[in-house]
Amino acid sequence: MNEHKDIHATNLPPLGGAGGRLVILGAGESGVGAAYLAQQKGFDVFVSDMGVIADKYKSQLQQWGIRFEEQQHTESEILNATEVVKSPGIPEKAPLVKKLREQGTPVISEIEFAGRYTDAKMICITGSNGKTTTTSLTYHILQKAGLNVGLAGNIGKSFAYQVATEQYDYYVLEISSFMLDDMYEFKADIAVLLNITPDHLDRYDYKMENYVASKFRIAQNQTPADYFIYCADDPETIKGMESRSFNGQQLPFSIIKKEQPGAYLDQENNIIIQTNQQQETFIMSINELALQGKHNIHNSMASGIVSKVLELRNQTIRESMGDFKNIEHRLEQVGKISGINFINDSKATNVNSTWFALESMPKGVILILGGVDKGNDYSMLNDLVKQKVKAIVCLGKDNQRIHDAFTGMVSEIIDTKSAQEAVYVSYHLAKKGDTVLLSPACASFDLFKNYEERGDQFKKAVMDL
């Protein structure tokens, strides 16, 4: 079915308008936002999506008079672009992307494109795990401090759309490795690298060094006036730094050793943050943090360093770190039924995220795992599974690798094909005082649209028990 629509609206610039011809591949939140900004800047815009465009985005494109197509890529419409903005979900090996690269057409991310049209200060956060939590917490602190700040990237509304419609002084951006791959001139005023653990290796030729290189692009183009904040406890980060040079001022954080300037944990379990000698030192007990668990001390430290660099008041930072509500689908308490605790950690789409989740659990876990396996190495979970997990419930179409990894370690491994079935089976395996933890370590696309839908169906199934 060809849903290609030619719309000749009065507000469209002439072909090859002031900015040239911009083609956008992918009509999701970021693509449609980029189309709007491009139109405002006088580009001739065309949007193309290989899938079906969601009604919400389709009606926006129609309303703005932007030409688009769905369920196909018409090469004659795309290969003549001056520049292409690509959705982070489209891999480099897609035939159309290869053709564009071969003919020398610049292919960039929405962040790269929108960054040209704003003078706001950019606070950019990346990492294999914890980036959504840290981005949300940082935004919460800045907002509470009264700064004029936007939230975008992998989270919230499209960055490009906000650049077109708002006048923020600061942006807190959650940046994935896929976005970083298509960023060239863009610069983070404050760059945060939380950690690097194997993830998405299918997109990086199964080479860890390629993925590491992608993550370090967060610090590219920085000057001595900028800041690079990183975790001194993360082995891959430290190893990656040895062969690279950084122009930004380095501020490490650690729960193992004293880092000054930077952040560390003292012997009384207080977070200590100092970014320069002139400032008052920030001190806060980890018991007062809204986010509990070892990995969240790192996340809170990173947000705290950003806040100190921006010279926010200690009182504001302390209050914000104490009253922050964590994001949905990340170690989210769903409820207790018959004394069994249900936790939704659907956002755990890699093994390391699941490790962090298990690490913060008591014993007696029924663990729901599975989905689209991205070349996972489950062995890092072995010790925690032996210590804490009673049974594993698989939620996916193909669970063979989970069976191979954990058979003999737990009393039962059971396959299920829906969130409802997984919850029902888990409930009957658990007893009072146990925890049913959905922390899949895999992407969700085999049975669900995305991790949000997986988490929502899990929560509904718990409520229906």
UniProtKB/TrEMBL annotation:
<dbReference type="GO" id="GO:0051301">
    <property type="term" value="P:cell division"/>
</dbReference>
<dbReference type="GO" id="GO:0005737">
    <property type="term" value="C:cytoplasm"/>
</dbReference>
<dbReference type="GO" id="GO:0008360">
    <property type="term" value="P:regulation of cell shape"/>
</dbReference>
<dbReference type="InterPro" id="IPR004101">
    <property type="entry name" value="Mur_ligase_C"/>
</dbReference>
<comment type="function">
    <text>Cell wall formation. Catalyzes the addition of glutamate to the nucleotide precursor UDP-N-acetylmuramoyl-L-alanine (UMA).</text>
</comment>
<dbReference type="GO" id="GO:0005524">
    <property type="term" value="F:ATP binding"/>
</dbReference>
<dbReference type="Pfam" id="PF08245">
    <property type="entry name" value="Mur_ligase_M"/>
</dbReference>
<keyword id="KW-0132">Cell division</keyword>
<dbReference type="InterPro" id="IPR036565">
    <property type="entry name" value="Mur-like_cat_sf"/>
</dbReference>
<comment type="pathway">
    <text>Cell wall biogenesis; peptidoglycan biosynthesis.</text>
</comment>
<feature type="binding site">
    <location>
        <begin position="127"/>
        <end position="133"/>
    </location>
    <ligand>
        <name>ATP</name>
    </ligand>
</feature>
<dbReference type="InterPro" id="IPR036615">
    <property type="entry name" value="Mur_ligase_C_dom_sf"/>
</dbReference>
<keyword id="KW-0573">Peptidoglycan synthesis</keyword>
<dbReference type="GO" id="GO:0071555">
    <property type="term" value="P:cell wall organization"/>
</dbReference>
<dbReference type="Pfam" id="PF02875">
    <property type="entry name" value="Mur_ligase_C"/>
</dbReference>
<feature type="domain" description="Mur ligase central">
    <location>
        <begin position="125"/>
        <end position="305"/>
    </location>
</feature>
<keyword id="KW-0547">Nucleotide-binding</keyword>
<dbReference type="GO" id="GO:0008764">
    <property type="term" value="F:UDP-N-acetylmuramoylalanine-D-glutamate ligase activity"/>
</dbReference>
<dbReference type="InterPro" id="IPR005762">
    <property type="entry name" value="MurD"/>
</dbReference>
<protein>
    <recommendedName>
        <fullName>UDP-N-acetylmuramoylalanine--D-glutamate ligase</fullName>
        <ecNumber>6.3.2.9</ecNumber>
    </recommendedName>
</protein>
<keyword id="KW-0961">Cell wall biogenesis/degradation</keyword>
<dbReference type="GO" id="GO:0009252">
    <property type="term" value="P:peptidoglycan biosynthetic process"/>
</dbReference>
<keyword id="KW-0067">ATP-binding</keyword>
<keyword id="KW-0131">Cell cycle</keyword>
<feature type="domain" description="Mur ligase C-terminal">
    <location>
        <begin position="329"/>
        <end position="442"/>
    </location>
</feature>
<dbReference type="Pfam" id="PF21799">
    <property type="entry name" value="MurD-like_N"/>
</dbReference>
<keyword id="KW-0133">Cell shape</keyword>
<keyword id="KW-0963">Cytoplasm</keyword>
<keyword id="KW-0436">Ligase</keyword>
<comment type="similarity">
    <text>Belongs to the MurCDEF family.</text>
</comment>
<dbReference type="InterPro" id="IPR013221">
    <property type="entry name" value="Mur_ligase_cen"/>
</dbReference>
